[in-house]
């Protein structure tokens, strides 16, 4: 068994993910199970959500998990074992009004991890996606004009 170690990671900060993965692998030598469970969402009409916010949601919900997975994957492939789990959302299968950026990022993640599942079969690496229905998330009430505070994390 290993003593727990807290390693902070902002999944939307793509530039630091590889360094964090390297720190984890240096500390423990391997990752047996990777559970991608971080997410950001925003509620609003398509025309009222800025492209900047669309990109931030995509970074957190799509590029973040795939960047972390790609950083850990070579270790799993070399050991020919491992499990990767994506905790996603039903909105990765069905879009609903006022959640376009969120649903798009979740659709993209489902597509990536479905392809990854097929590719990793030959290495005995299991890839699973979990698409729960609506869940209660931490939410901050935004100040007027502060779109960043309207994000659920």
TrEMBL record:
Highest rank taxon of the organism: Eukaryota
Keywords linked to the UniProt accession: NAD, NADP, Oxidoreductase, Signal
Coiled coil: none
InterPro entries: NAD(P)-bd_dom_sf, Sc_DH/Rdtase_CS, SDR_fam, SDR_family_member_7C
Pfam families referenced in this protein's UniProt entry, alphabetically: adh_short
GO process terms (BP): intracellular calcium ion homeostasis
GO molecular-function terms, A-Z: oxidoreductase activity, acting on the CH-OH group of donors, NAD or NADP as acceptor
Record-stated family: Belongs to the short-chain dehydrogenases/reductases (SDR) family.
Protein name: Dehydrogenase/reductase SDR family member 7C
Organism for this UniProt entry: Tachuris rubrigastra
Lineage: Eukaryota, Metazoa, Chordata, Craniata, Vertebrata
């Amino acid at each position: 068994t290993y003593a727990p170690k807290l390693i902070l990671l902002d999944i939307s900060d793509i530039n630091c993910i590889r360094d964090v993965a390297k720190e984890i692998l240096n500390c423990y030598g391997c990752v047996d199970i990777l559970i991608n469970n971080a997410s950001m969402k925003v509620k609003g009409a398509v025309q009222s959500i800025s492209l900047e916010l669309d990109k931030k949601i995509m970074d957190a919900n799509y590029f973040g998990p795939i960047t972390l997975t790609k950083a850990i994957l070579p270790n799993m492939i070399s050991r020919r074992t491992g499990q990767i789990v994506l905790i996603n959302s039903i909105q990765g299968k069905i879009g609903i009004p006022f959640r376009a950026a969120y649903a798009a990022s979740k659709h993209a993640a489902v597509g990536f991890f479905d392809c990854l599942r097929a590719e990793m079969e030959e290495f005995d690496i299991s890839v699973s996606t979990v698409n729960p229905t609506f869940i209660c998330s931490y939410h901050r009430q935004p100040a007027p004009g502060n779109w960043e505070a309207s994000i659920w994390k």
